[in-house]
Amino acid sequence: MKRIQGWGNSETDYPVPEPAQQYLESVVGKPRQLKNASVDSLIKKVPSSDLPKHPLVSTDAEDRLRHARGQSLNDWVDMQDGLVNTFPDGVAYPASDEDVRDLIVYAGQHRINLIPYGGGSSVVGHLTPPGDGPLTLSVDLCKMNKLLNLNEENHEATFGAGVSGPDLEAQLQQHGYILGHFPQSWEYSTLGGWIVTRSVGQQSIHYGRIEPLFVTGHMETPSGPLTFPRVPKSAAGPNLKHIALGSEARLGILTEATMRIRRLPEEEHFYSAFFPNFEIGVEAIRKIAQAELPLSMLRLSDPFETETTFQLSGEEKLVNIAKKGLNLFGQGDERCMLVYGLTGNRSENRLADRELAHAVRAHDGMLVKFYLGQEWIKKRFLTPYLRNTLWDLGYALDTLETALPWDKLQEGRKAILGAIRNGLKDENEPILVFSHVSHVYTNGGSMYVTYLYRRSTDPEQTLAHWRRLKGAASQQIVAHGGTISHQHGVGLDHKPYLPLEKGALGMQIMQNIIRDVDPHGIMNRGKLLDTD
Ligand SMILES: Cc1cc2nc3c(=O)[nH]c(=O)nc-3n(C[C@H](O)[C@H](O)[C@H](O)COP(=O)(O)OP(=O)(O)OC[C@H]3O[C@@H](n4cnc5c(N)ncnc54)[C@H](O)[C@@H]3O)c2cc1C
Question: Does residue 121 share a domain with residue 62?
Answer without folding.
Answer: yes
